[in-house]
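so i finally got all the pieces together for this one. its two components total, 1054 residues if u count the protein bits. some of the lines might not be protein, just check the labels. i wanna see the whole assembly predicted at once instead of chain by chain like last time, that was a mess tbh
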Amino acid sequence: MTGTGIGAPVRRKEDQRFITGKGRYTDDLTRPGQAHAYFVRSPHAHAEIVKIDKAAAEAMPGVLAVLTGDDLAADNIGGLICGWMIHSKDGSPMKAGAHPALAQGKVRYVGDHVAVVVAETLAQARDAAEAVEVDYKLLPAIADTATARSSKVVVHDVAPDNTVYEWHLGDKDATEAAFKKAKHVTTLDITNNRLIPNPIETRAAIGEYDMGTDNYTLYTTSQNPHVARLVLSAFIGIAPENKLRVIAPDVGGGFGSKIFIYAEETVCVWASKKVGRPVKWTSDRTEAFLSDAHGRDHVTRAQLALDDNGKILALRAHTIANLGAYLSTFSSSVPTYLYAPLLSGQYDIPAIYAEVDGVYTNTAPVDAYRGAGRPEATFVVERLVEVAARELGMDPAKFRKKNYIKRFPHQTPVIMNYDVGDYGASLEKALEMADYKGFNKRKRESAKKGKLRGIGFSSYIEACGIAPSQAVGSLGAGVGLWESAEVRVNPTGSVEVLTGSHSHGQGHETTFAQLVSERLGVDINNVNIVHGDTDKVQFGMGTYGSRSGAVGMSAITRAIDKVIEKGKKVAAYAMEASDKDIEFADGKFSVAGTDKSMAFGEIALQAYIAHKFSGQDLEPGLKEGAFYDPTNFTFPAGVHICEVEIDPDTGVTTIERFTAVDDFGVVINPMIVEGQVHGGIAQGVGQALLENAVYDESGQLVTASYMDYAMPRADDLPSFDVGMTVTPCPSNPLGIKGCGEAGAIAAPPAVINAITNAVGHEDVPMPATPRAVWHAIHKGKAPMAAE
Amino acid sequence: MHAFEYHRPSNVRQAAALLQKNEDAKIVAGGHTLLPTMKQRLAAPSALVDLGAMGELRGIEKKGRAVVIGAMSTHADVATSDVVAEAIPGLAKLAELIGDPAVRHRGTIGGSIANNDPAADYPAACIGLGATIITNKRKIVAEEFFTGMFDTALDEGEIITKVSFPIPAKAAYAKFRNPASRYALAGVFVSKRGSDIRVAVTGAGSDGVFRWSEAEEALAKRFAPKSLDGMSPPASGMNTDIHADAEYRAHLVGVMARRAVAAATGR
């Protein structure tokens, strides 16, 4: 092997350009004749638009156009879509309110798009935007998740009680029956706090229309450029698919928020034809806070039924999920099919029943955010399990172990069929790494200093590598979730991989090259990864749900296999042998039983010069493509243990130790995987201790800047102890499960379980800010986050 | 940001003249509050008068029984000054706790004081040490300088040139940071200079920095953390926001005051 293949901690190839400022992000691009867009946004959470007077703005210097929802309607441009149909219990389809890219008649959240000004310079566009006179008739607003359904405010007329759907999953009768015979029931009321994604690079777009060819190009910050093209053409109707090219160059983080097809990107493409100039928009940080799709925001009552030996009999949950003012691209699926199927956790639970009410509110749309539904499920399960153990007086580790699934495959009562795992192995390793035995001693030492100490577990599972297309199709998805790849071998033996996955921080340029290096014996520096351009890559479903390894690399593997097969045929001609006798290993084609061999690069050249075979017998060239559709979800799982110390005088929580043991299946690059774990934990700790998107009663976003929205910083975090166990995934050719979201899924319950353990009761809200923890310690009851 | 004129005078007299000529002009020192406000279009001065070229406004020296700091000295200057570290280590420590390295290398003591942000750190030091603010026109004692949230005794066109801090026998600052902004949620500066005992509180009060007289009286009997046991100011005068309600803020003031006294007395 080359030493840069699977399992090697190769340094990231892309970092040289990123850390030397040579990355090329959308905002770095300047197109000839480029004009600038600035959006007029609603300052109100809920209002009718009585009139928009754009005359003054149109007369301002440098202004090329002032466009509104009326102009969109006149051009027959469709609204933004939600691509996953959810049906309510009664069989009725979800109630999707219209979502025009520029408001038509009504605004529904602070930051909603009212008009766009296109001008020669950004400053001119902004000046003119301030001169657009919008006459609003204010309406009362509803921002609160729990009370949205009983509010008199109606966000969309199609949903008079603000209810998008009343969905359910599982066997209600079996669950009720199990609860009836239970010896003990644990009940928890849980609020999963609303988060704002905050990638370092804000969203940006350049729309460009070429009058000569009638083609459009959109440069944008997308995690899935092909999906953006499909939606913009087939649903929104801006341009036919073959006339639209979407390019997502370097993208600086997404965490899900750049999956979706937003108003601004849509408007830039449309406006570029209207003004006959490329139109650029770059979100400022305030706009990002207001208009990027937010995450989480669940209110749940959850219960666990147990027998008198501490065996779990059933779980039930009723969740209200805030979907915001409009249904974002995949929003409907996040609190339903990405949530409830994970409510079995790592446990053998005979009966599960979940009800989810999706609600509209006058807040920014809520959609997938790192983990998407699975952090919410894990928080419910892992809080319930920890509290149940405490209530039964059992050690939480032993309680978990007793209830773990131990035989695979395991069919849960909520769709998922777990293929493989060894949860006990992860737990044992984590207990040892965390020195669980020494905890009581450390707790006594903390007590001597007047500090409280607590320990908490999170034994999480997630379903990723999404997903088998047939399966998601039967659940309402509007698309298939396979991935495609093309492996192009050049005559000199260097390789280009065109992938439908998209890297926005994950290190694909390195890990995908490692796969090629491993399989073809090519130096990783002779491998280029091409992604993010619909004109180069035939198609792709993009990167989210920890799918680029399990699905994207599986597609590359299949294409590599085809390259090897073709190479064998070329080699057979070149070495005058039967292609059945050609073997390929360590970058060499050889004839079995002889010392004849040719290097991969030599065969590549032979394939292209085609001197040794007739082009009628074998097609020249060496380029193969593959579409890979997974056969199952993958199920990364692990155990995270958090140990905290709390200063009772101030309520400040310090994470003293954080141990993560994860089973991601086969790991391509352990350094990159560890980095993903670190980042995920940091985001999970952010949710647990710091981050909270707060709307006030009038629907104003109180936390619309870093002055009030607390992001995790390096000094909020300890050094993590990261370990791994491995059960290779049987459902894909590489054995990969995926690692991108695990930390964000696992960490929040581990942290909150540790804090509640230290405080001595369960009534600690998330985020457990110093204020909340102080109140929890001293009053036994913390007030709600918002005043 | 709207368009504005930019001036960079070379002495205080020129700066004052420019301010007099341009009614809507603003002084810019480090710019760490003003420029973000302008970028958000919440402020649109017609002109900026940048004090950055005036060497006379920068520098730290010991003068008799006081440390005198030029208005354009950055937080980093104060945090790393040997003069400050020796005479009033608590003041150096305070400067070290402001913002992040970028803020500390651009932000200035004069700018901070003139802005009188209710959660800024320096107002607590000025009142907690009984400082005198020196302008191009006069000298103002700290208690008369800070006149309420974002409000000071400065007249139109008046420029802070120096701040003079009397050297105390003991002094220290304890700060509880806002988890998001890292401004003071409750910051307490304590000092003892002869019989002059001061406890100045920033970040917590609903009308900006204030002296906590009850605590001063308790410390006058004995300057020790124990003297403040169980004490906190009334919650009624405290700020409430998503980060801290009034009750919690009042409690934090008590905790920070005890920690400041402990630091000042080396306990």
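Chain A has three domains: 33-139+215-253+258-273, 295-467+632-779, 482-628.
Residues 548-574 of chain A form the longest helix (27 residues).
anyway lmk what u think
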